[in-house]
Amino acid sequence: MGTTNAVGRDPLVILEEALIGGISHFQLREKGTAALTGKELKTFALACQKLCRRHRVPFIINDDVELACAIDADGVHVGQEDLDCASVQSRIGKDKILGVSVHSVEEAKRAVADGADYVGMGPVYGTRSKDDAKPPAGIVGIVAVKKAFPALSIVGIGGIKPENASAVYQAGAESVAVISSLAGAEDVRGQVNLFKEAYKGAPQL
Ligand code: TZP
Ligand code: MG
């Protein structure tokens, strides 16, 4: 989540609610024309990091390896179009979390070889949160990557809500990454809980 997803609310309040609700990880993904940059972005990132640390939740930064290194974030997430995963790994060090977006078994294979700790797969369902999102892929890609790399952590993303999360977990995703369904929820804590319920009710195949 970034500042533009907060739709009129304080993004740090949303983050704190989500942390109290029990999210396992947080990724700062600041995108778009209204995105914070430079010093402002760093200040916002530090505020997010402080909250995450208080709740002992890993704080991951999307794309911005320099910022991640500057503030000692817990990890970095990159897409296929971003910096290559192997060089990110060498810049952040092996003790940090490295996440990579993949869309196929082939891309997953490369991510694993480059040292990814988890792969993000999506959009599973339709999303309005990513301007350059590919068409929704459903759960088939997740099933295929899980079959090829049973021990790999897969994070499903894109249009995921408590009502459709079970299918994503069942397909082989260890977890789901969510923007609008949490940032737009009136009761953020309650919404996190609904995701946890969906997880419990969805034994992996
Ligand atoms: N990558 C694929 S879909 C997506 C990203 C970053 C956006 C997910 O946002 P939402 O609001 O949960 O659909
Ligand atoms: Mg990216």
TrEMBL record:
NCBIfam families: thiE (TIGR00693). It holds the Pfam family TMP-TENI. 2-[(2R,5Z)-2-carboxy-4-methylthiazol-5(2H)-ylidene]ethyl phosphate binds at T127, R128, S129, G159, I179, S180. Its cofactor is Mg(2+). Transmembrane segments: none annotated. This is Thiamine-phosphate synthase. One of its GO terms (biological process) is thiamine diphosphate biosynthetic process. Binds 1 Mg(2+) ion per subunit. Belongs to the thiamine-phosphate synthase family. The keyword Transferase applies. Mg(2+) binds at D63, D82. Residues 8-182 form the Thiamine phosphate synthase/TenI domain. Pathway: Cofactor biosynthesis; thiamine diphosphate biosynthesis; thiamine phosphate from 4-amino-2-methyl-5-diphosphomethylpyrimidine and 4-methyl-5-(2-phosphoethyl)-thiazole: step 1/1. It catalyses: 2-(2-carboxy-4-methylthiazol-5-yl)ethyl phosphate + 4-amino-2-methyl-5-(diphosphooxymethyl)pyrimidine + 2 H(+) = thiamine phosphate + CO2 + diphosphate; 2-[(2R,5Z)-2-carboxy-4-methylthiazol-5(2H)-ylidene]ethyl phosphate + 4-amino-2-methyl-5-(diphosphooxymethyl)pyrimidine + 2 H(+) = thiamine phosphate + CO2 + diphosphate; 4-methyl-5-(2-phosphooxyethyl)-thiazole + 4-amino-2-methyl-5-(diphosphooxymethyl)pyrimidine + H(+) = thiamine phosphate + diphosphate. Keywords: Magnesium, Metal-binding, Thiamine biosynthesis, Transferase. 4-amino-2-methyl-5-(diphosphooxymethyl)pyrimidine binds at Q27, L28, R29, E30, K31, N62, S101, K130. GO terms for cellular component: cytoplasm. Coiled coil: none annotated. It comes from Planococcus lenghuensis. Condenses 4-methyl-5-(beta-hydroxyethyl)thiazole monophosphate (THZ-P) and 2-methyl-4-amino-5-hydroxymethyl pyrimidine pyrophosphate (HMP-PP) to form thiamine monophosphate (TMP). GO terms for molecular function: magnesium ion binding; thiamine-phosphate diphosphorylase activity. Its EC number is 2.5.1.3.
